[in-house]
Amino acid sequence: MEKKQGFFSALKQEVVRGLSPSRSRSSSPARARSPFATLLRRKKNNHNNYDGAYVAQPESLIVRSGSLRPVGEALAPLMEGPDPDGGEVGDSKRVGSGLGQWVKGQLSRTPSVASMSYRRSDLRLLLGVMGAPLAPVHVSSTDPLPLLSIKDTPIETSSAQYILQQYTAASGGQKLQNSIRNAYAMGKLKMVACEYETPTTTVKNRNVSKCAESGGFVLWQMNPDMWYVELAVGGSKVHAGCNGKLVWRHTPWLGAHTAKGPVRPLRRALQGLDPRTTASMFADARCIGEKKINGEDCFILKLCTDPQTLKARSEGPAEIIRHVLFGFFSQKTGLLVQMEDSHLTRIQSNGGDAVYWETAINSFLEDYRSVEGIMIAHSGRSVVTLFRFGEVAMSHTKTKMEEAWTIEEVAFNVPGLSVDCFIPPGDLRSGSISETSELSQDERGKSAIALAAHRAKVAALQKAQDGNADSMIWRMEA
Fold first, then answer.
1. Please, where are the H alpha helices in 21-112?
2. pLDDT for residue 205
């Protein structure tokens, strides 16, 4: 019988031998590969058995268009060409077969340069908006929750404090959460641009399962206020991190930059993975009412970003006007079941009219399970709407995107994790970049021809033949 050794059992053996995640960091000043890549590599012997040892490999953590293999399965070698069938997890192909099929497909048809260009443009938009967004305000993991107070406190504030006390208790209790020094999570996800709207046309991608980009992510956190995430989708990788003093992000099209404004948590960690930071995030929120979510009564907590933080996050022609966060907490379980935030940005071009961008992210958290006593959401989905308006009357565009994710592994107090694992990349630029800078860049590159080609490309997706039903179910909102 084939014997498999758990990830953290093997990791503990490495720690005993004196190895730590920081040993895998590249010797060059710039980050050449993930500091955690060697922790997730397994050595395969000639008999297809695993000895549980982790060896340094130059390959990237993400295999086959960003897909992550479940723990215990063989990690296939990195493919050298595009995967024609989307790189689904669970495929077993020999090395080179994907490249051969791709070359054969290119010879059998004439590819559309415009279609390939806008496919990359869609992927860039997906990763830019949904890859590594940050929370609205600064939160420190060392900040205690406010004590429940009724005297001289507005009812909206005291109600919110009571709801957060219940949420903390339902998530495992404050004492247990305070014992967490670091955390690790690994998951799979799928992203898709499912709808595009102009004043005259609305194009919906009806075959979202076939057109979805598959990938995965790895997230590490450590007190105080340090985190690092790697996310790869469709062959492109975004990684971001925080060493407690600055937040940075690296994308293939912008390189490495620091983020504007105060240090803020990663929004992906608030989606059911970090209840302590989530409770601290809503510490200054107000309870504004109730709402049914999937037939379940929920309290609504509202948090508004203060003007000073909005000003610090604005840069150049891009000004963030508002950023509001809503949390929906179940009255039955006390857990967070939905989180919605939106921010409005005004971009003033030279000598032209102002253009407004509103980005709304609505996340649903599902499948809560206990991990070492902490309740963690093991699946969920997000619906993102990017709405652009301004310039002239009756001129707007709206793009709707979706993401679905599942959590494969979660663990706390991982041995061997050190502050060296959260060092920013050596090629980090001295100039900072705001989360709206990409929007202003897109403004300069926008043209009527590009919009027409994009609509034609999305419309062509509707004519594609339906493939086999995908295991991931995508739900469209009205």
1. 97-108
2. 79
Q: Say how far residue 139 (Cα) sits from the centre of its chain.
A: 18
Enter the tokens of residue 382.
């997000």
CATH of the domain at 242: 2.50.20
199 within a domain of the structure (yes/no): yes
Any domain includes 436: no
Is 421 part of a structural domain of the chain? Answer: no
User: How far is the C-alpha of 92 from the C-alpha of 89, rounded, in Å?
Assistant: 9
Helix intervals (H) in 381-447? 437-445
In one-letter notation, the amino acid at residue 354 is A
Domain of residue 260, residue span? 116-407
Asked whether the bond before 29 is cis by omega within 30 degrees of 0, the reply is no
Please give the biggest Cα pair distance in the chain: 76
Give the contacts of 177 (CB within 8 A, at least 6 positions apart): 168, 171, 275, 276, 374
Tokens 């301004």 belong to 390
Phi first, then psi, for residue 396 (nearest 5°) are -160, 160
CA distance 190 to 405: 7
Cβ count near 310 (within 10 Å): 21
Could you give the 3-state DSSP secondary structure of residue 366?
A: strand
Structural domain includes residue 470: no
pTM of the model: 0.70
| Averaged pLDDT in 10-residue chunks for the chain of 478 residues | 52 47 41 47 41 39 37 38 38 41 43 48 85 91 70 86 95 94 96 88 79 93 95 92 93 88 94 95 95 95 95 90 97 97 90 88 97 97 93 80 96 94 82 53 42 43 42 41
Overall number of domains in the chain: 1
